[in-house]
Amino acid sequence: MSLPEKKQRFVHMVSCLVLALCLLLSGCVREQPGGQISETRLLLDTFCTITIHGAVDSGLSVLLDEAFTLCADYEALFSITIEGSDVWRINHAAGEPVEVDIQTIEVINAGIEFGVLSDGMFDITIGRLSRLWDFGEAMISLSNPSDEELDEARQTVDFRQVQVAGNTVRLNNPDAWIDLGAVAKGYIGDKIAGLLLERGASGALINLGGDVIAVGSRQDGSPWRIAVRNPFGDSDEYLGVIEATGVSVISSGIYERQFEKDGIIYHHILNPNTGMPVISDVVSATVITENAMLGEGLSTIAVLAGSEGAREIFRDAHGFIGAVLILEDGEMLMLGDIRLYD
Questions:
Q1: 211-237: b or e for each residue (b if 16 or more CB lie within 10 Å)?
Q2: Region 170-178 average pLDDT
Q3: 3-state DSSP helix/strand/coil % of the chain, to nearest 5
Q4: 3 to each of 8, 61, 324, how far by Cα in Å?
Q5: pLDDT of amino acid 275
Q6: What is the pLDDT of residues 45-91, one digit of tens each?
Q7: pLDDT tens-digit series, residues 216-256
Q8: Residues 220, 273: contact at Cβ < 8 Å?
Q9: pLDDT of the residue at 9
Q10: How far apart (Å, rounded) are the C-alpha atoms in residues 60 and 38?
Q11: Cβ-count burial of 170 within 10 angstroms (0-12 exposed, 13-18 middle, 19+ buried)?
């Protein structure tokens, strides 16, 4: 079964929907004139780029290392796959209470709030379902999860069964697993931004694989310019540019991790009620918020809930500024206070 030409192009997309215009080559540190430095490292299963400028007492290179170290430290807490992480210990405790870092508690509580806000479409106990899927190249040659596997995993999904008391977490269902992948990256971005400001950076652009946090402004005082990709176009096509100062620009979309098999595209944003990739009219969502963790949750919820659901949810979300939703028919829907520039 052939797909429309514009949807076939999903298979060939390897870059993020939101591209910071100042993104540099992977693994390369570049000191730029006027006291600015950038570097890209592979963390959080994606390419993370941090650009900073300003007169920093410890030096920009030292601060850049501290920022990436902080990112790695948080990954070691929140990863579902790193043995010994807080999330790993919760998932392997068979329903027993587990003491974790207070920052893990903050992310879990945020995930629970997103579950309430979305009426369960966003659910951090989706871990058993998410581990059934491999949205890499290997999946093309493998079988999709069986109906029996999906049904068994679905029985463990219910964020209301997560019990938090102080710094202790307990999963009422001993077979349940939590997965913080749809919220933790935003939390990490916010913490990196806080570190850079605390250490005296005048401005920074943090790009954690499409989660972009604009700290202050560019060296010349103008806003950071963040390009919003056209999900149906080639890699160099974009819909416009968002000018950002002191806000987060976060994107989610069905293109991020996906594969095509037998003419069908499977993507990583799962419907907790079916265990299958969600079907909605939203192909991608770019959300501007006061902080990145909120933006990450809302952008994922927009894909899960669809455009009409997103309208209602955004209306009740404190800290929401604006959003660009790209619909399956190619329509661009703009909500809230947002403007795209050429």
A1: bbbbbbbbeeeebbbbbbbbbbeeeee
A2: 97
A3: 30, 30, 40
A4: 6, 47, 24
A5: 82
A6: 899 999 999 988 889 999 999 999 999 999 999 999 999 999 999 99
A7: 999 999 999 999 988 777 667 889 999 999 999 999 887 66
A8: no
A9: 38
A10: 9
A11: middle
pLDDT digits (tens, 9 = 90+) for 250-277: 998 876 665 566 566 666 788 899 888 8
Going along the chain from its start, the domains and CATH numbers come out as 1-342 (3.10.520.10)
CA angle 13, 191, 285 (to 5 degrees): 35
Rounded Cα distance, 128 and 115, in Å = 17
* Distances, alpha carbon 7 to alpha carbons 46, 117, 251, in Å: 23, 30, 18
Distances (CA, A) of 120 to 90, 117, 141, 173, 241: 21, 8, 32, 17, 33
Comparing CA positions, the residue from 51, 115, 173, 47 lying closest to residue 300 is: 115
For the segment 330-338, the average pLDDT, to the nearest whole number, is 95
Phi then psi dihedrals of residue 277, to 5 deg: -55, 135
The whole model's pTM is what?
0.87
User: What DSSP string runs through 254-314?
Assistant: TTSSEEEETTEEEES-B-TTTSSBP--SEEEEEEEESSHHHHHHHHHHHHHHHHHHHHHHH
Looking at residue 266, its pLDDT comes to 61
Q: Which residues contact 227 (CB under 8 A, 6 or more apart)?
A: 18, 19, 20, 21, 238, 240, 241, 242
Whole-number percent of the chain with pLDDT over 90: 71
**Nearest alpha carbon to residue 284 among 232, 234, 206, 243:** 232
Cα-based angle 252, 257, 263 (whole degrees, multiple of 5) = 115
Number of CB atoms found within 10 A of residue 155's CB = 11
